[in-house]
Protein 1
Amino acid sequence: MKRIIQLAAAAAILSQPAIASAAGQPGNGKSFVDDFASLDGHRWFVSDGWSNGGFQNCTWSKKNVAIADGALRLTFEKGKTKDRDYSCAEIQTRARFSYGTYEARIKSVGGPGFDSSFFSYIGETDKQPHDEIDFEVLGKDTSKVQLNQYISGKGGHEKLVAVPGGADKGFHDYAFVWEPKRLRYYVDGTLVETVTDPSAIPQHPQKIFASVWASSKFKSWLGAFEAPDVAKTMEVKRIAFTALGHPCQFKESVACKLMPASQ
């Protein structure tokens, strides 16, 4: 999903420490595992007070980000916020990350018009080309997750793959392994896509994001938005990054299976 960030967002993000990240150079982000016993403000920046563009029918709100029952909770709910009728939630890392294994354990929301996302991204607000690697659950059909990547602002690599049991019915593991000449996507530990075309592999270090939002305008993509009677909450039990060549960090990690092949 191409992000269109307004001036308020740009000001907030650019207030964070600038980090040189030319193509091919490593990001400053180190390997980590976050099980969300609490929300680490040194690691995570909470989006608040803006939206990503006119297509989004909600405004990011820090009030919609919470820790409860051993999970990060990102909530979409009705409530007037500036020029929008709904509020939604997003977190992003302060650091940028380069090649390695990116993983999240997530229970998405369902419903036409909704998007539950785990992805990496960098772009104009960080004075970098737009590179991005995506997992997006489109609420109109939670039996699948959409994969995609952007390279210097060019997308068009969408692919839908099955999520056994449904992305909104329970927690599922989403992972991608990003290397200089290869990108692999995994769902629940199973390889579902391999990309080797150099023109389809991002090269710039990126931040890690998790978000839930909705749109009334992307009907062909997300489905026709249906206003929910109650708040909808995306839950995240874990987000992890394992730098390329580093030891795996938890037994369920895709990196544990792939370390010999990644070195």
Note: The longest strand covers residues 232-243.
Protein 2
Amino acid sequence: MLLALTAHARVQLDDDGFIDNIDHPAIAYRTAPTSDPVAQLARQLNAGRTTLAFDRTTGYLPALLRALDIPVASQLAVFSKTSLQRLIISPQNPRAIYFNDTVAVAWPRDGFIEIAAQDPRQGIVFYALPQQPSSPPPLLRRDDCLTCHHSYSTLGVPGLLERSVVTGPRGEAMAFLGNYIVDDRAPFEERWAGWFVTGSSGTGRHLGNQTPPVTRAPSTEIVPHASSVVSFPDALNGYLSTQSDIVAHLVFDHQIRITNLITRAGWLVRLAIDEQRDVKAIADRTARELVDALLLVDAAALPSGISGALEFTASFSARGPLDHQGRSLRMLDLRTRLLRYPCSYLVYSNAFDALPPPALDAVYRRMWTVLSGAEADARYARLTPADRTAVVEILRDTKRGLPDYFRPPS
């Protein structure tokens, strides 16, 4: 919900940190200039410095993905009527989502292109691109997306949101059979209702690929199941891929909460500075939650035997950067956890680097407390000494601006 407050009203924060006034001068979500990748592309299009080719079948989609450096192999397909274009979405006409670290692009056949881009200061900003030829193609900001994407489920800031909702054969939501918010902490058994999932889930059981009959009979239920699916050529005919890769799903799940936590940490500290609250206390509190997410402390354990298409795994891992031993925070594990080295590659994001200095300092100090072994809480025992050492060594080689206390004594 959005409260009707003036731009200069003091922000009221409840225990969950919901930021009710996104037009506060320290935030200015709807009015401050943006520098996210889509805003940058729009400026280039309007100035005539670049163009987007229009395809007869998929419109601007292929050119847009190339311009934003989003791999086609990242395609995910959702068929529940739980988004802006719900009237045309169904298992027969799913909404394809493509993503990289900072941008997600969605498109159902016969619909327009939806875009969610992470601005380094403002969090997720929403755009639409009509699928009609135009010069230049109009990338239109859509703040009406905040109806769903500014909520407690997005951690009180404009953010990413993934739902797992049991879905009937025409795309109708059957929430009484299962309705979950998903990130990398979600139990595997609750994930991907209303989504196609290709690849093998191994021993893992999930809710994807199922469309129970529409009924409210008390005996109706949907049961998590293991799956091994090569592709969906019928449902995804006319899309850029017939895949909705399980590894891409896991990566997307991982990014959601961290993206929102980075935004919230930046907003809360900027508000604290502007309103003369206890900046250090707020920075320290937000840093603990963000660092736990970055280090996969609360991520659900993965079942064994997960495998996806080589194309996505290769394109994701190839983005690096590599340390001098050839290691990367993008190397996948997929045995018990997503990443081989338990630290998120999102530490390289522009949004992470753009955190206000008190927030960034608190995050680095908390990371060092955990990675150095000074944190004795048992919940961090899943980070083995070898894990911690490897993460520190990789960060030393690859992370710009890393504080000196991460370096070995001279």
Note: The radius of gyration is 21 Å.
Protein 3
Amino acid sequence: MLLLHSRRSRNRARIAVATIVSLLGSPIAPLVAGQAPAAAKAAPAARPAAAAATTPPDGGWPRAYTTASGAALLIYQPQISSWTDQKHVVAYAAVSYTPKGAEKPALGTVKVESDTRVALDERLVSFSELKLDEPSFPTLQRDQLRTVVDEITKSLAPGDRVIALDRVLANIDMSMIIPKNVDGVKADPPPIFFSKTAAVLVNIDGDPIWAPIPQNDLKTAVNTN
């Protein structure tokens, strides 16, 4: 009887401890539950990192600058006119130039010319030796054009004088590319077949080898797919 009484006492003690723990833990549960939605809302904060991963290799266009005189400068992606031997580029860029205190920007274009270097791994074309010429801003006076060119040149730091290789290739006039035959490589254009009515293209390995079809006057070519 004494052993049974002792076991009952220990069981009661365990139940009491569990009850105390549950009472002490009950106020914590609403706090934890209240913090869960906050953690769920904080998850979207990781999205800007994914957006940054899609940034173009050249930083993107157009590019905005504030010149030393306080003018607002906006340079749009240069349009490639020529890229001789992939070493010298000639391009034209649209520019928006707003002098300090002016209400409306002056819109125009400049000619961009430079020797280039290509970084294939980074897919970038560098034109650090920049030369700007032939500025055309209809609303500016002739003496203001040189100021615009100087401010564009100073605003474009050497590290910014790059453009994505894919942008350059997309602008090149494909008619200027002349295919050349290479020894051992057959580069002849394939034949083109055209039909105004429904048709099926049948490939035949060499001259057709005909075989009769039983029980009719038709024949089949055995050396086709």
Note: Residues 2-25 form the longest helix (24 residues).
Protein 4
Amino acid sequence: MIDGAAAAGDAAAAFVRATWFLTGEHGVRDLAQACALFGRAAAGGHGPAVPVLEAFLATGTGGPRDWPGALAVLAQRAGHDAQAATQAALLDAMPLTPGGDPVARPAARILSQDPRVILFPALFTPAECGGLAELAAADFQPSTVIDPRSGRPMRDPVRTSDVAAFPLAAEGAFVHALNRRIATATGTDPRQGEPLQVLRYAGGQQYHPHLDVLPQEANQRVLTVLVWLNDGYAGGETRFPELDLSLKGRPGDALAFVNVHATGRPDQRLRHAGLPVTDGAKLLASRWIRARPLLAG
């Protein structure tokens, strides 16, 4: 019934079918089919399909990457969506190549050569930090960790923050431009990154000492990037006990550290903690970067 309605031009049915192809529900996951159907749903006036189409075009999910096309969809949204208008304005202020990459590699400061820990001062602007925080505000959920036995996310008192994530269908042009800046700074492919997350630590919340590597994972998290998004809170330092290093950046400062040795073995020296926030709330963007791209294309 859904297929028939979609074939007959029903935009809502095309959106439902696209979602199934995106997730693999009721069949095989097919990102090319999902992209085509999200496009048909958007063209048919189905509002929720429009930002998804923007994300697919920006990231090249399900087809060739089309940065100008993504910007055109964002401009369309900006005409009636205040948040989209803010994102469009932030993108206009970014010095980008025609393909959406930074025109220059961000400045870096080496904090530790071995193990590798790097600070990128002012990687994001204060306005970009505020725009990202605003985008995340409505989507916070309790944070999880990966169960080493099942490999699935689970709640655990080791991590008591809240999190809002931007997976494929939510990685619009603004978020994607920030991800490409992170990739340029770290010398990685944007496709190696897991979805960007915004973490919120309220009073008393923390992340106990841990490593960011995944258990029994061939495509390992080789690199972590953290970007401070706000100030005006107390506590909440990022602490590396083995390095005797505690850090608390200004809004927009980014920290990158390599989680594994050259052999791919987890580097225990990069065990780190998000210390408890004692007053106010800390906002932090986080992106885990794998050894190889997560998706082809």
Note: The longest helix spans residues 173-186.
